[in-house]
Specification:
252 residues, alpha/beta, three-stranded mixed β-sheet, 8 helices, 6 strands, 46% helix, 14% strand, rod-shaped
């Protein structure tokens, strides 16, 4: 028995029995008497049946469908009560399919709301940034993409971006600020930001795998989190610029 006050039956069924779709038959017992009463009275998952305390559609019908106002004031009251109770059960059975249809529709809405809430980040990224998380294969890019709703607060915060990268790859990363210019003098230069990964124990194969992982991330950070006027790169400490140039030439 899912006796949990203040939580509606649709939510509980969606949580505990997600594999069951539109198979539930609902019986509205009409015993809901206060705002924090439990909605679910009993559940029989083996036969896909649930009893709830809420009122049936029957409660919206005129009272004359069940009996007259003075029905229990005359004659054999016990006999009249039994007839009244039998008529009530018959009408409840008659309206049970309607209650079930309405309940199943509510259950569909609950499932859709749950799906949207679980996928809300992907929806925001898809609608506002035209990015689908499910199509991003690089795990580092996917993690940084989840920060796009906060891009205005993070863009240009090099220390935070550096700390995030260090946490994600579980390696020390330091930030170097250099000057980049096509001339020998730095008088007309722009800032060159380098995230230097302190990872010196990589062989040639490991280095190539690392570059393959970092290159998409470098492009993604440059597009979304690094100001346009800043040159940006991710490098490995102890690896020469010639090695980067050789690798980039091979992947292109």
């Amino acid at each position: 028995m899912l006796y949990i006050p203040e939580i509606k039956a649709e939510f509980l069924l969606n949580m505990f029995f997600p594999e069951k779709n539109d198979d539930w038959a609902v019986y509205c017992d009409g015993t809901f008497y206060r705002n924090y009463n439990a909605d679910v009275l009993n559940v029989f998952p083996e036969i896909n049946e649930i009893h709830v305390s809420r009122d049936s559609v029957l409660s919206l019908m005129p009272e004359g469908m069940i009996g007259g106002e003075n029905l229990l004031r005359m004659g054999d009251r016990q006999n009249q009560w039994e007839k009244l109770h039998a008529r009530l059960n018959m009408l409840r059975s008659f309206f049970c399919p309607i209650d079930t249809i309405l309940f199943r529709e509510n259950l569909k809405v609950e499932r859709e709301m749950t799906r949207i809430l679980e996928d809300r980040l992907n929806i925001v990224l898809r609608e506002l940034f035209d990015i689908n998380l499910n199509k991003i294969e690089n795990p580092l890019v996917k993690n940084y993409a989840k920060l796009l709703p906060f891009v205005e607060m993070i863009r240009g915060d090099y220390g935070k971006l550096c700390s995030l990268l260090s946490t994600m790859i579980q390696q020390p990363v330091r930030m170097d600020k250099r000057h980049y210019s096509i001339e020998e003098s730095n008088e007309c230069s722009i800032m060159w930001l380098v995230m230097m990964v302190e990872k010196n124990d990589m062989d040639e194969d490991s280095l190539q795998e690392f570059f393959a992982l970092m290159q998409p991330l470098e492009d993604f950070l440059r597009e979304w989190f690094i100001p346009f006027c800043v040159k940006f790169s991710i490098e490995v400490e102890g690896v020469s610029e010639e090695s980067y140039a050789d690798y980039n030439a091979r992947i292109k």
